[in-house]
């Protein structure tokens, strides 16, 4: 009886002791889970494999999608006071890994025979609770991963169709389609003029003269209901998709000497040749 009574007296005291120290213990900040939708379009129309789009580019050509995949990283939300807060991306083993997201708008319909039938049209993660009014991110794969071995990095960095073996780096944007004038028009954005690996190093490079990682600042972004729009119509608005510069790739493979890349790079906010980078000139990505 005495043992039972003693236990009943000690239990409330233990609880009081545990609760009483709460004010002195560090408080865990509240966490906000975010799921940021990314919408693909061609002008005013939703992007979809198997569709045909009209009045695209300077010649008003038709455009039939063959692929549309984009890597992004360094995702941040911006507070009303202007502070950048990194988004901790959710590791899902398929689309998000090591701070990198693969946005995939292409399934296996129509001419879209590359990649997988699976699609991903959102960026998912967590941030501390806050008053956020902007979104920022970088298109591409970060330098510390770009020259790794894709066979060991895991999804979404293991797809060899999104890798340039001759540059030992990833294709940041893999956008392809058929037009009236060209059986295949491509935009393969990635780092170029990359130095070869040092002697004895089997993977990686010593750096690239043209990183080609545009950064996007979307102001006035509502985290609760805003959407990121990637618009191929706006991206192609200054380009002739029916013709190709002589002796160059069919479209733009990021070569610094391919004239077809100039208008596309401008609409990505990137520099090209003597044309300086101008992030304000980019029209490919916007918020709504």
Model description:
The chain is globular, with a radius of gyration of 24 Å. The N and C termini lie far apart (71 Å). The protein is 13% helix and 35% strand. The N terminus is likely disordered. With 288 residues, the protein is mainly β. A hairpin with a 4-residue loop joins strand 3 and strand 4. The chain is built from five helices and 20 strands. The longest helix has 19 residues. Strands 3, 4, 5, 7, 8, 10, 13, 14, 17 and 19 form a ten-stranded mixed beta sheet that branches. Strands 1, 2, 6, 9, 18 and 20 form a six-stranded mixed beta sheet that branches. The chain has a two-stranded antiparallel ribbon with strand order 11-12.
Sheet of most strands: 10 strands, mixed
Distance between the termini: 71 Å
The count of β-strands is 20
Percentage of helical residues?
10-25%
How does the overall form come out from the CA principal axes?
globular
Which radius of gyration do the C-alpha atoms yield?
24 Å
Structural class: mainly beta
What oligomeric state do the depicted chains represent?
Answer: single chain
Low-confidence stretches: 1-21
In N-to-C order, the SSE pattern is HEEEEEEEEEEHHEEEEEEEEHEHE
In DSSP terms (H or I, runs of 4 or more residues), the helix count works out at: 5
Q: How large is the share of residues in beta strands? A: 25-35%
Mean pLDDT, to the nearest integer, reads 89
């Amino acid at each position: 009886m005495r043992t039972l009574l003693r236990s009943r007296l000690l239990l409330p005291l233990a609880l009081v002791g545990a609760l009483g120290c709460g004010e002195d213990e560090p408080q865990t900040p509240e966490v906000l889970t975010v799921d940021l939708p990314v919408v693909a379009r061609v002008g005013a129309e939703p992007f979809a494999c198997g569709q045909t789009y009209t009045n695209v580019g300077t010649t008003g050509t038709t455009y039939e999608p063959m692929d549309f995949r984009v890597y992004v990283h360094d995702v941040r939300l911006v507070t009303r006071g202007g502070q950048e807060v990194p988004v901790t991306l959710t590791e899902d083993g398929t689309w998000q890994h090591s701070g990198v997201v693969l946005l995939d708008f292409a399934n296996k319909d129509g001419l879209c025979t590359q990649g997988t039938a699976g699609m991903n049209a959102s960026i998912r993660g967590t941030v501390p609770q806050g008053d956020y009014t902007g979104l920022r991110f970088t298109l591409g794969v970060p330098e510390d991963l770009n020259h790794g071995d894709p066979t060991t990095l895991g999804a979404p960095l293991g797809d060899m169709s999104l890798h340039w073996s001759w540059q030992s780096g990833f294709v940041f944007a893999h956008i392809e389609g058929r037009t009236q004038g060209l059986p295949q028009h491509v935009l393969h954005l990635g780092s170029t003029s990359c130095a070869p690996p040092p002697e004895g190093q089997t993977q990686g490079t010593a750096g690239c003269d043209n990183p080609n990682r545009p950064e996007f600042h979307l102001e006035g972004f509502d985290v609760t209901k805003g959407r990121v729009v990637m618009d191929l119509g706006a991206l192609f608005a200054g380009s002739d998709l029916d013709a190709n510069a002589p002796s160059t790739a069919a479209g733009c493979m990021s070569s610094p000497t391919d004239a077809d890349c100039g208008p596309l790079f401008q609409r990505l906010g990137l520099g090209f040749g003597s044309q300086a980078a101008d992030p304000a000139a980019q029209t490919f990505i916007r918020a709504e």
